[in-house]
Every structure is written in C-alpha cells, then in structure tokens.
Amino acid sequence: MTAFSRLIGLILSFALLLAAPLAHAAGGRTGPLVLAAASLQEAMNAAADGWATKGHARPRISFAGTSALARQIEAGAQADLFVSADEAWMDEVQKKGFLRPRTRVSFLRNVLVIAAPRSSSLKIAVGPGFALDKALGNGRLAIADPRGVPAGIYARQALTRLGVWNSVSRKLAPAENVRAALALVSRGAAPLGIVYATDVQADPKVRAVGTFPITSHDPISYPVAILKTSRDPDAENFRRFLLSGEGKAIFRRFGFGTQ
Asked: Which residues share a beta bridge with 210?
C-alpha cells in the first residue's frame, strides 16, 4: 500500500466527519457519529438500525481500519464514539487524552481465519510450521497492513509464533483494512487471505479453510468508548445499547463473540 493510497483513504473516510457539523447547521436530525473498525460493517449497521427503531435518530457510522480512525481522532475529528478492533489503538487514543473517562468497555471478540474463494477445495490445518507457503503457490497472501491495522498485526503475530512468517513475508498483498484484504480473495486476486471469521460470514464468495489457534496471537478484543469531542446527548445512550443484552445479541447474529 503506497503513501498516496493511504492518503486517499484518509481523505475519503474523513469526508463524513467534515460533513457532520453541516448536518447540524442545516437543522437535520442526526444521531451520534461512530468511528468503527471496518470488520464491524454489517453488525454495526444492524445495531444502528435497531436503535433507530426505538425512535432515536440513526447513528452515522464511518468505517475504516482502526489505525486510520485513531489518526483521525488524533487529528481532531469531531466524532462521538470510537469502536476499535484491538485494545492497543484504544490505549493509544486514551493515553493522548481523547477518551471521555470511565466510558471505555471491551465488549466483542473475534477469531482469525484463512479465507479462500468459495470454489477452493483447500483445507489447511493451521499449526506450528504449517505449509502456508506451499498452499499459496505462486499467489499472494491478502492481509491487512501488518504495520498498523489490527487484523494484520494479529496475522503477523500468529504467523510468527507458528514459525511460518519468514516463508510467506515476501508473498504478502497488504491492504488498508481487513475488508480490503477480504475483497482481494473474494475477487480472485489472491488465492488466500487472513481475515476475521465474521468477515468470511459476511461474504458468500469466500469460505474459511483454516482457523488460527487463539493462543497464536493476542486476544482479538473490541473496545468502545465515547470521545471527549462528543456533543451528541444520545452518544452515551447508544453506547449503553451496544453493551446491552439486546445490542450484544445483534453482534452475535453476525458471528462475534461477546464479553
């Protein structure tokens, strides 16, 4: 991924944030602005719809890689909630003073898998020294950018701990977020990719051909918190809805674990 493509991604994902004050100025009824990890697309939209059916203004959601969202927050993005795909980026944002105190809660879990096109007959037993390089052949391994995107960081941890990182590190096809990595597999541009189990569930063109042991990487944990920039009076109520039994049931429907 080039510096230019990262810049374009940041500009596009920042557009929704810049538009938010205009909506308020125009007198439109809008809900809180949520910055959410790309892997949450279907589930978070369903949660926003569920909240809206209760008579609330539907939350607006900006999806991107967690690292890109954290940079937006640090650059002064005027948003209400942040939902990260790992604890480390939430730690960073918290250390820099961008979170409202006592609003951070970890509430979702996920599983790391190897994805292949639906037509693939592969079945990979993931374990120490497993033959991922051989399974790739001359193809590339789609992966979220391991330099900063949580899914890519988890993937690198797992491949390193299992002793296969060096054999595949020159065959990577890094993407700006986990859904971009998934798209490479879904379109047939890469024979294999490392994504979350929930991503595979969201795309009928792919299937999981291997699952990483949970001990091979840090726990995949999603925290949510309100940002200090929040001015929406419904932000805390929506956060509580996400953490409620009803809210968590929505995420479980899309394959997430809850905590």
From this structure: 114
Would you say how long the chain is, in residues?
259
Secondary structure element (H or E) that encloses residue 229, with its range: none
Tokens of 222: 């999603």
Per-residue CA distances from 212 to 123, 124, 139, 203 (Å) = 13, 10, 20, 19
Give yes or no for residue 160 having a pLDDT over 60: yes
pLDDT score recorded for residue 28: 56
Q: Which residue has the tokens 């953490």?
A: 243
**pLDDT score, position 1:** 45
Instruction: Name, in order, each residue with C-beta under 8 angstroms of 239's C-beta and a sequence gap of 6 or more.
Output: 81, 103, 105, 224, 225, 226
CA dihedral of residues 39, 147, 89, 116 (deg, nearest 10)? 20
Nearest to 162 by CA among 221, 86, 215, 218: 215
Question: Is residue 32 within 8 Å of 235, Cβ to Cβ?
Answer: yes
* Interval 2-41: pLDDT, tens: 444 454 444 444 444 444 443 443 345 789 999 999 999 9
- 74 has a pLDDT exceeding 50: yes
Return contacts of 162-167, CB within 8 angstroms, 24+ apart: 162/126, 162/127, 162/128, 162/129, 162/130, 162/212, 162/216, 163/128, 163/129, 164/129, 164/130, 164/132, 164/133, 167/132, 167/133
Residue 70 has pLDDT above 70, yes or no: yes
Contact 178, 199 (CB under 8 A): yes
